[in-house]
Amino acid sequence: MSDVDLGYSLIEPTGPVRGTAVLVAGYTSSYDTFNVLLEPLAENGYRVIGLSQRGQPHSTGPDTVDGYSLAQLGSDIHTFIDALSEKLGDLGHIHLLGHSFGGVVAHEAVAQNPRRFASVTLWNSGPRDFGEGGPAHDALVADGPRGLWVLDRQRMGLDPDIDLAGDMSVIERYYFDRLMTTKPAALLAGAAILRDQIDRTNELATLSREHGIPFLISHGAQDDAWPADWQRDMAIALGADYVVLANAGHSSHGDRPNMAADVLATFWSDATTSTS
């Protein structure tokens, strides 16, 4: 890509290729979040690509907020697929998945070029502002990325200063380092996009009907981001498959990786059959 380099993970299927999937990471995340899905999805015949968005760990990105507009983030997905196709050969129609904020970006990518996608999955991702973007943006303006760390820790009832004490667990250190290696401009822009998110479900429904794109809406039963009823209502409006993963939270693929892989492989197989 001309202005940024997007980091990605890739696993080839263990047998014949049934399809290619691009999984777009969420707000404070990276392609690492999808590592637990790579092997089980490859065993189901899928080439799977986890994607870090611009400014996230493993990717480069500009230092100014205006380099992270929603239109640019959506365009990045198409530029990335074009570049990877040149490297690997024709990838065919893509099964696109966006996790959380990645779902907001996936929506934009579909709006820009719906013909490219065999299916779209909005994974723990809802239709409109759920009240978190504003506080996150304010915390970032006041104290930078660590301000966001403190805000999230306080919301969870955890010690916000554990990083200062140097007594973090391995998991806490991973999340802290991931946040601190994300471009501050990307965090600010993402918070503003979430704060200003408007409901574009009707637009998606039109694209689905006009281009025959199957949708899956799925979230964990304990997802604490977008309300479950918002996600369910979005699925109904889209005529989409709707799957709730029991005993799972906002990162339901991390909580229930084998179940998540089964849900996705089944949906992708059905989507391919229905559009062939």
UniProtKB/TrEMBL annotation:
What the entry lists under Pfam families is as follows: Hydrolase_4 (PF12146)
Cellular component terms, GO, for this chain's entry? membrane
- In this chain the Serine aminopeptidase S33 domain maps to 16-255
Which SUPFAM superfamilies does UniProt cross-reference here?
alpha/beta-Hydrolases
Name the record gives this protein: Unannotated protein
* Organism of provenance: freshwater metagenome
